[in-house]
Amino acid sequence: MNRKTAIITGGSRGLGKDMALNLAKDGVDIIFSYHKNEVKANEVISEIEAIGQKAVAFQFDANDFKSGQQFITQSTDYLQREYGNPNFDFLVNNAGTGTFNMIADTTEVQFDEMMNVHLKSAYFLTQAALPFINESGRIINISSGLARFSLPGMSAYAMMKGGLEVFTRYLAKELGERKITANVIAPGAIATDFAGGSNREEDKQAIISSITALGRVGEAEDIGGTVAFLCSERAGWINGQRIEVSGGMLV
């Protein structure tokens, strides 16, 4: 049986949930992390099982890079117990949060949190996962449109996403011998609860719509299909690339 498994960080809500559901629809079993809300995680598990795929969730605190290493250990131990093999196929580094502060007001604590969550944890979680990714596997890192265009108040967050994009190119280069691809998806403004859910506010949605070619704010459902495509056989020759999924924001 050609079973495929994906590990997704931050899969209990928002973009990560939609990624998990899209991959499950393609016949992929899912392991995902949640931060605190186990109830929401269990709801996602039920939705995936209703599709006909297996799913399990483990807790992960992206502000602590050691937690990511533990998450990979829990995931591979589960795979060993469940299938007799700890390896998996797809890794999606999606977990994250945002902070809105002008450069003049950003504290060291806020800066360090953005670095830990978006860069350090992703780096060392991926490092822990590398021995277990199957040949011809896929790594997908989630960046942001803010690494291309600049909006006041998002400097610390955007800097870390820029670093994640550089990391992705190095992954593509170093893992080529194993036929593992690494790519970045960079969402534009999405109406989720990210950073306090401000993209759901009517006034902000009007501004975003006015600077987006397709004339609306993105939804979580706009992202998951792209992740599923990059994990499909049709995307096997895409490597080391940044794919912005923003509806044409600030083109």
Sequence-ordered SSE layout with sheet pairings:
Blueprint: E1 4-8, H1 14-25, E2 28-34, H2 38-51, E3 55-59, H3 65-83, E4 88-93, H4 108-129, E5 133-142, H5 155-174, E6 181-187, H6 202-210, H7 221-230, E7 242-245
Parallel strand pairs: 1-2, 1-4, 2-3, 4-5, 5-6, 6-7
Helix pairs in contact: 1-2, 1-7, 3-4, 4-5
How would you sum up this structure, described in words?
Helices cover 42% and strands 18% of the residues. With 251 residues, it is of the alpha/beta class. The chain has one domain (4-245): Rossmann fold, CATH 3.40.50. Strands 3-2-1-4-5-6-7 form a seven-stranded parallel beta sheet, with helices on both faces. The model has no long low-confidence stretch (mean pLDDT 95).
Highlighted features:
251 residues; alpha/beta; Rossmann fold; globular
